[in-house]
Design goal:
The protein has 2 domains: 36-117 and 224-258, Periplasmic binding protein-like II (D-Maltodextrin-Binding Protein, domain 2, 3-Layer(aba) Sandwich); 120-220, D-Maltodextrin-Binding Protein, domain 2, CATH 3.40.190.10. Helix content is 41%, strand content 21%. The protein is built from 11 helices and 10 strands. Helix 3 links the parallel strand 1 (37-44) and strand 2. Helix 4 runs parallel beside helix 5 (95-103).
């Protein structure tokens, strides 16, 4: 009994001493709660500004989650994931790329959801006048039209569909300047290296160097939808699922709407 009393006294003494010199008492559960989790999100380039603004909002409630973004053309990101590049979450600017990953069994079953929708617009440098419709792209004064590479850039795929539906693709094909992603298209028009370009309305809205001529009619192209999903090889699947849930919530939707994305209420 005396031995037990001595051990109890010793424990109390040690704890008191630790508190006196300012050392915190760390429990295993506290260590787990404070450990940082890294989350790599591969996302379509057109989401860059919105996702960058969403990041600190998410981290207010999840300070232990470190989010890193890998922005690029959806097709290029798809290929990276297929080749084994690390990624926890994939957000594409079209269904095609996510469909391909799903068919190959590279997504966590049941994690797929749609983030938002968008619109395709024709833009020109801000000081340009006389361009009022897609048909003006056939005018002799239009020398270069920037468009995403249709095979890897969804915006380019949608743009090609519009030009073909309007019956002007063959007339403007020689003028097309293909870009690696939609933000390169925007930059080309901003700099004047292209006389016109096809981008999402969300891209056009972040620039004060371009103006929107007209929005493409939705019936002229496939639905512009942004599907998202958790990658099966992720080492942080529960955290990745939580992030997707947040993106589907009201705070994230408010940011997406601010940038011109179309979100469900």
């Amino acid at each position: 009994m005396k031995k037990r009393q001595f051990l109890a006294f010793l424990s109390i003494t040690i704890i008191s001493w630790l508190l006196a010199i300012g050392l915190p008492l760390v429990t295993p559960s506290a260590v787990v709660a404070q450990s940082n989790v890294g989350l790599l999100v591969s996302a379509a380039a057109s989401l860059k500004d919105a996702l960058e603004e969403i990041k600190p909002i998410y981290q207010q409630s999840k300070p232990n989650v470190n989010i890193s973004y890998n922005f690029g053309a959806s097709g290029a990101l798809q290929q990276q994931i297929e080749q084994g590049a690390p990624a926890d979450v994939f957000i594409s600017a079209a269904k095609k790329q996510v469909d391909a990953l799903e068919q190959k069994g590279l997504l966590v079953p049941g994690s797929r959801a749609n983030l938002a929708n968008n619109r395709l617009v024709l833009i020109v440098p801000k000081n340009v006048v006389g361009i009022r419709s897609f048909y003006n792209l056939t005018d002799a004064k239009i020398k270069k039209i920037a468009i995403g590479e249709p095979r890897s850039v969804p915006a380019g795929q949608y743009g090609e569909q519009v030009l073909k539906k309007l019956g002007i693709f063959d007339k403007v094909k020689s003028k097309l300047v293909l870009a690696n992603n939609v933000r390169q298209v925007l930059a080309s028009v901003e700099s004047g290296n292209a006389d016109a370009g096809l981008v999402y309305i969300t891209d056009a809205k972040i620039s004060d160097k371009v103006k929107i001529v007209v929005a493409a009619d939705d019936k002229f192209h496939s639905p512009i939808v942004y599907p998202m999903a958790v990658i099966k090889n992720s080492k942080n699947i529960p955290t990745a699922k939580e992030f997707l849930q947040f993106l589907s919530g009201s705070q994230a939707k408010a940011v997406l709407k601010k940038y011109g994305f179309i979100v469900s209420s």
